[in-house]
């Protein structure tokens, strides 16, 4: 059933691309219906899959001569991420309600991207996974280049090239694994059971990890992320931060760690405490956490703050992955979901609710606008989103980061200490942004300033409210009752870490 | 051998030549006074019919081809890779002819179509030829046709200039090739590929033959010119830019297919002549002495090394040079150089079984198809805007949505984005290389190739950016004849469908090997 | 016992109240008052239902996130229940004092009620996970209450408050992660049992190496910022003085107790031996907090800052008592009795200080309202002439703060000193200095504000009117009641103290 998420999205994209232009309202409704249908299927699939392990949805030969199968399957991790994708898609469409220029094409690209993302999360054939992974690149480029802002063409090209370089590395690994395994199959399960030689895994692992890691914002390959996020139109930055970065992290987990577990073995020698690829990537992840947070602290553009915060938060995901502990990887997957929701929310607030009304994102200008009083909805939405993003308990980010940190404690305590600093800086930059944008110190006291002097902003519209509430609900539910996802994630992670994916 | 056998083997060539003569008769005789477009339609129709006839008669070819009298060695082969390449050449020729519809660069339509068909005949001969002389005749037939086609836009100075360049380079390379062939003949006493290979293995078994190296380098230079491999590529950008669009498309597709078919033929002959116990990719080796094979920087034979050097140089230089182009046709030329580089990798690591041959054919056929479509779309834009500069493509999505969609799909396929066919071709090709040899060198070469194809995305996106992202510089729709648009859409559809169902073409290709 | 999940109800009630008040703009104060009263009644019911033996009662235990060892575990003993009453009381007073919030009252009272919910949650949670949820979330309403309704320098004050507390919280969190990693449990009761048997140390040692002391310091840092302990107190004066007075009441009456409560509920049971090992430096810091707080109060010119520092001083006594307890007593009966006295004192002091400080800030808010926002000590004079009731009642509160016998402030401080002297006479001796200075400070305030000639501008300083008197009278009454009959509280607190001490190991 879950496979229909993919088909529906691509069909929707096709319909929108071929539909006669000039009726943006219809395009919106179609896009919303398609996204909602995908989300509904994702929920139904998630509910139906509860308590089950990996369920194969379809498995037919695709390129028989090369042993490539069209294999779609879902385990707990996939189901959670598909759910996230559905959520992000619906919210993205709602936050794009005001797109009036080339509406059809916008939603066509949007749904094509979504379809690709669904595909990646459901593919259990490495080749198929790669195909969907690449399908997602092109719509991103056009979404940013056509509907973006601030240096959009540069950012779009940078994003496309980074993604493509990353996928080129993945392709090399894919080819090499295919040739080395000699099993004449690219099924993930077959490859994982192919007993690839350790020496091969030792070089394939880092190449695959970096290849996917580029898209996950792995420091120092993250530089596409802030520019891309900033330039992208709201829905696209929501998707970029919300699900596309997760594609990278998912690939790191499913492919790099799942297929080449021995690539994480110690080298047998160490240099300054770094004795394996695991240490290397943990170090990069920790640097990413702290670096992203520090840079976010210094930004003057509101959206850049969120952009860099994504780098920092994705650092937690990557750190969780390389802890290789049950709890750490659980946390990483949960953090994928959580960051997907929260970052989406933050980008929506900054890019849609605020920017579309103020037409500036510079703190210097926002400070004089008294947004805390003029856009109370935005302000309080940002407070909640910011609090969630900081990892305050009660929201999904807390449980996720908590588990990552626990995993890190088990693996290497100093990782935890270093990421603790990242959390503190995270609080600082979120709070700084909050204050500068909404509750500026230049804000006069309520009794000192009449409300009438300000020009009215356009009222908050229903799609914005609906989507915001949807995302709030998601982060709150997961924050208060994380078992809802963890019950599904845990067995899958356990199976994956046990090696050989059953 | 008797003439009946020869006739049966050369049935497709005959069909094409008859069609060429019919075109000339019809166009110069009956339709002298008719309107240009009518003549084009009539000529194209006959050309298409000729190609179809050639394809229809292929099953009646003598199975396995034509051998020398009293010898098992083939003179002209049929079936297997030869048939695939020949069908490919014919199909691509059909598409090229369709590009002629609506164009007005010449009044001599009949001659154009006839030359195209004759050049295609040359291509068919090259694909089938197992003898150096037949190959050379085929090459010259093809090349001469190409020179003429390049110069066909008589009103355009560029056309003449590029034809002259092409001709001079081509003549020179033909001389090199002939020189190399003559050395081979001198070394082995035969002009048959199979006999040459066997002789080479035995004569070089006790030591390297310097003359062989000279011969190989010469031949590599000659063939490198045909496939536009660096450093023998200099004609390509000018020719692609100057030649009329159908001619350029023909050069980019049909002539490439024929040239790579020749390389496959050489490789297959070598592989089949070699002791099956030896590693699959060791061919045209300088030595088979028991002490082990000499290695040349990790390559097991001089031919592999030479081809690999050409491959790397082509894909690196082709892609980097394409970055700097402002003319879309030159961009396509450099990208063609790069693509040739990728394919040469599989030639350098050629396998005894038919994986390499199939991978190369798959690549070159789909590439040919895509590139014909690209040239068709570019020429449409060029006809309206009078230029093939990048800026001529500004805002195309608004001026002709279908054409913009066609460009999107075709260029992305060239860049190797799945699920389009260009991606499968690349994957198939690289997988074939790695399945032949799992050493460090092939991994490194494939890594370079993959990295370079990442670079290529940049320049393809540069064009697509202008098509989709930037606003149009002038208004007014870009219109093409419905037939042209239809053909382009058909090509695009094929690119998508073959990409989504890559097994289709592979199993189709497999049927040709069934009887062998 | 009781099938009603009272502790859950008392936590959820203010949240519901907050939601309602958010949408009832003009009547939001009424909603808040009703909610506050209901909460107070409920907390009294809880107090009555406490188990007599001093153990933890009214347990609610459900699975929550089993994979993380997280359970929904609520329960209170006398300490917790007393804090619930205090929180309910202080919140109600704060709501009462905030009758002049004109700007977005709905939001204001919603935040106040959320803060109250945070306090309730913190005092009832017995699992680190959701204890931490409330601990952190109570920050958010506090921050915005300061940030949006505070004085002129509210921005930096709010930020400083927030960032300090967050840094402490992260240290706390990381330490608890380590504990969880070592033991697989986050339940305070479980962990306390482990610690009492000495297993906790060994498990941490086995899985993480010799980091127990660092974990202790991390946990202490989290609490020290909140209480605050010198030198982590620097956020406090700015936050207290910039916050609107009702919020200051909540900060000092409720939130500062979260830190002390944490020390008693978490730090001492889990890290007894480690705290005992660094007892001397901790005592020095506690004494420093007392003395420094008192001296700093003496140097202030602003009423709110005076009492901000005086709060630091008063909470210093709690810290003094807590750290003094942390000593291995063995079979020494008199030491055990001293410990019991000190802990009783600490708990009473928490309650009394909360009550008194809240009352004082309530009066200050009245002064501010009547004077148009002024609150300098030297600005006023002779207020007892125009406003005798006001002066009288505030005087009572001030004397209670000073520690006058017969009023509630005295009992706690007396018990603390009674306990601390035998345990660490040096610390007690130096702390007496603080006691003296505080007395001087408070007397100075009384002299300057209430006595002397009346300046012209204050000649018609309005006295408390009926409603206000009605509001504060019960509080003043309670001060007397607790001062005269402390046993009504001690009889419940003492079993808990005995129970706790019996389960602790230093």
Description:
Chain A has one domain (3-497). Chain A has 21 helices and 4 strands. Chain A has helices spanning 3-18, 24-48, 76-95, 103-122, 126-135, 137-147, 152-181, 188-192, 198-215, 224-231, 234-259, 277-297, 302-323, 326-358, 363-366, 371-374, 376-390, 396-411, 413-437, 462-480, 483-497; strands at residues 55-63, 68-74, 266-271, 274-276. In chain A, a hairpin with a 2-residue loop joins strand 3 (266-271) and strand 4 (274-276). In chain A, helix 3 (76-95) packs antiparallel against helix 11 (234-259) and helix 4 packs antiparallel against helix 5 (126-135). In chain B, helix 13 (328-348) packs antiparallel against helix 14, helix 14 runs antiparallel to helix 19 and helix 16 (401-415) runs parallel beside helix 19 (482-500). The two termini of chain B are 21 Å apart. Mean pLDDT of chain B is 84; it is low at 279-294. Chain C has a domain at 278-506. Chain C contains 20 helices and 2 strands. Chain C has helices spanning 6-23, 28-48, 78-97, 105-124, 128-137, 139-149, 154-183, 188-196, 199-208, 212-226, 235-242, 245-277, 279-298, 303-325, 333-371, 388-402, 408-423, 425-450, 466-484, 487-503; strands at residues 57-65, 70-76. The model of chain C has no long low-confidence stretch (mean pLDDT 84). Classes of the chains: A mainly alpha (502), B mainly alpha (516), C mainly alpha (506). Chain A binds chain C through residues 327, 330, 372, 383, 387, 390, 392-394, 398-399, 402-403, 405-406, 409-410, 413, 416-417, 420, 423-424, 427-428, 431, 435, 439-441, 445-447, 481-483, 486, 490, and chain C through 64-68, 102-104, 129-130, 132-133, 135-137, 140, 144, 147-148, 155-156, 159, 162-163, 166-167, 170-171, 173-174, 177-178, 180-181, 208, 211.
